[in-house]
Automatic annotation (TrEMBL):
GO MF annotations, alphabetized: cell adhesion molecule binding
Name the record gives this protein: Ig-like domain-containing protein
Pfam families documented for this protein: Ig_2
PROSITE patterns, A to Z: IG_LIKE
GO terms (BP aspect): cell-cell adhesion
Superkingdom of origin: Eukaryota
Main location: membrane
Topology in the lipid bilayer: Single-pass type I membrane protein
Residue stretches making up the Ig-like domain: 2-85, 92-156
Localisation: Membrane
Keywords of the record: Disulfide bond, Glycoprotein, Immunoglobulin domain, Membrane
Annotated GO CC locations: cell-cell junction; plasma membrane
Organism the protein comes from: Didymodactylos carnosus
């Protein structure tokens, strides 16, 4: 059976490969096989990556590349594979509360959803370039809420 290992930037990857979103890189499948390999397959989360049948995988990493990456090699003696867990780091992406219509003096609840890896360390709310409040992020928090108890036109 072939012996298969995965390399990135000339170093063997044991379990986890951490990359930055939108970086182009090459991942190498190192193969020792006698007889030589008949086929090479790359899989992402156990799904075949079409068009990738060489010992090098070229990728411009995105969030969709996260998960299990496998190089599978076959020869007449058998099948072997090596897998790594790919983690993609990416800057925060925010989704804010859409336009809200309310009467003067009513309570205004604003919500900001955050998608980031690594997770955020603080959330800062601003109004016309003036910081209103800075809140720490907990490890499982993916949103922040800011409430104005009694909103008036100057808050718009």
């Amino acid at each position: 059976k072939p012996i298969v290992n995965i390399f990135w930037k000339t170093k063997q990857v044991q379990r986890t490969l951490t990359v930055i979103e939108n970086t182009y890189d090459i991942i190498q499948c190192s193969i020792i096989a006698n007889p030589s390999q008949n086929s090479i397959e790359w899989l992402r989360n156990d799904q075949l990556i079409n068009g990738q049948n060489q010992d090098q995988l070229y990728s411009n990493f995105t969030q969709s590349d996260e998960g299990k990456l496998t190089c599978r090699v076959r020869n007449t003696a058998g099948i072997s594979e090596a897998s790594v867990n790919v983690i993609v780091l990416y800057k925060p992406k925010l989704s804010l509360t859409p336009k809200i219509i309310l009467n003067q003096g009513e309570r205004l609840n604003l919500k900001c959803s955050i998608n980031a890896n690594p997770s955020c360390h603080s959330i800062r709310w601003f109004h016309f370039d003036q910081e209103l409040i800075s809140l720490p992020c907990s490890t499982n928090q993916n949103f922040s809420e800011y409430t104005i108890p009694s909103a008036y036109r100057l808050h718009s």
